[in-house]
Amino acid sequence: MTHPLLDLSPVTAVDFARIEQKVADLLSTEQDVVIMQGEALLPLEACIRAGAPRGSSALNIVTGPYGQTFGNWLRDCGADVVDLAVPFHTAVTADQVREALAAHPEIGFVSLVHAEAATGNTNPVAEIGEVVRAHGALFYLDAVASVGAEPVTPDEWGVDMCIVGAQKALGGPAGVSAVSVSARAWERFAANPDAPRASYLSLLDWKARWIDGGRKALMFAPAQLEMLSLEACLERIGAEGLDAVMGRHAAAAAATRAGAVALGGGIEPFVHEAADAAPVATTLRVTDGLDAGELVAKALALDPSVPLVAGGGALAKEMIRVNHYGTDATREVVLAALAALGGALEALGRTVDPASARTAVTETWPGE
User: Fold this and answer.
1) Whole-number mean pLDDT of the chain?
2) d(CA 347, CA 295)
3) How do beta strands 161-165 and 177-181 pair?
4) CA dist 310 to 138, 291, 313, 314, 323, Å?
5) Is the pLDDT of residue 71 over 70?
């Protein structure tokens, strides 16, 4: 008996190359795009292993937990790392990056997360890119959470390694990811004797065996379901229009923020300034002795479908995240999430104003 998820036609080299071109079109890039057969941590680590040689110097910008992870990888590669850390409730500025590079002219690699879904902030990549370009360093960008929720244009911004995933704003699968690589990044990879080779982490293998070979022979059997799902999500975005998709995410973020403020009851935006808040997810801080994990558990008991999670690590008791991305970037989802939070707060004895929250959402996002 056939099964639609199991009995799939093979993904050919022609199919693979076609889907890579669709990712390149999404990013408006002329750089080489490589689709990698794994969650986005695969190209994120692969780029650092290849681009940060032992003894080199790197600036690692930390605006959330992923920035901390990248610093650990850079140190493991033997790079001399300068961390530029800012409070997670804000964004880094181009002036801060400029000052750090001026203080350390030897820096040749800069790593940045565009939008930290875990903390709900987003960084001004265009302005930072100008600073990094003027300094001459390679620019590495984690755009996994931001792509589809806000503009991501690596060529325009001077990004040398732009890593994207489909599982957030694109509304696609988690098991496949992609990276755009500039010509000078390829040169840096090739000059690094410690860059992964003959390895699942090796981007140089992709360059030599796939790109330089004219994208005619794949190195292994591709994951059919993930590749077809990636193409389907790109086609869905094309049908809706990228601007419309980004508009939904921006509206969801603005409405969630306004609704949470109006709801009250001991929650407030975690990211202080709306301009620093990521459109992919809205983070909220609990106050007055509330426990974020308990509040989320009560909200999910009222409505298990809403995209609410408590923060991780040190923020587990303090932060709530509303993940309004992909197909959840709708006004109905925002209203449902705030209703569940309001019900949970009432159950904990807090005074809330759900009517004002609904009004704030509908006034901020009048209709779809």
Assistant:
1) 96
2) 9
3) antiparallel
4) 35, 9, 10, 11, 11
5) yes
Chain centroid to Cα 169, Å, comes to 8
| Assigned token pair, 102 | 């001026």
- The C-alpha atoms of residue 58 and residue 189 are separated, in whole angstroms, by 15
User: Could you read off the pLDDT of 218-271 as tens digits, one per residue?
Assistant: 998 899 999 999 999 999 999 999 999 999 999 999 999 999 999 999 999 999
- pLDDT per position as a tens digit, 296-334: 999 999 999 999 999 988 899 999 999 999 999 999 999
- Block residue for tokens 């390149």: 24
Cα 207–178–52 angle (5° rounding)?
Answer: 60
- Which CATH code is given to the segment(s) 13-239? 3.40.640.10
Place of tokens 């093979």: 10
Q: Which two tokens stand for residue 342?
A: 């309001």
Q: Which residues contact 22 (CB under 8 A, 6 or more apart)?
A: 231, 234, 235, 238
* Tens-digit pLDDT profile for residues 22-53: 999 999 999 999 999 999 999 999 999 999 99
Provide the greatest CA pair distance for the chain: 66
CA 204/CA 210 separation, integer angstroms: 10
Which stretches does DSSP call E strand in the chain?
A: 32-36, 57-62, 80-85, 109-113, 115-116, 121-122, 138-142, 161-165, 177-181, 267-269, 282-286, 308-310, 319-322
- State whether the Cα torsion 81-108-55-37 is positive or negative: positive
* Count of Cβ atoms closer than 10 Å to residue 265 Cβ: 24
pLDDT digits (tens, 9 = 90+) for 128-187: 999 999 999 999 999 999 999 999 999 999 999 999 999 999 999 999 999 999 999 999
Q: Which CATH superfamily is domain 242-364 in?
A: Aspartate Aminotransferase, domain 1 (3.90.1150.10)
**For the chain, what are the domain ranges?**
13-239, 242-364
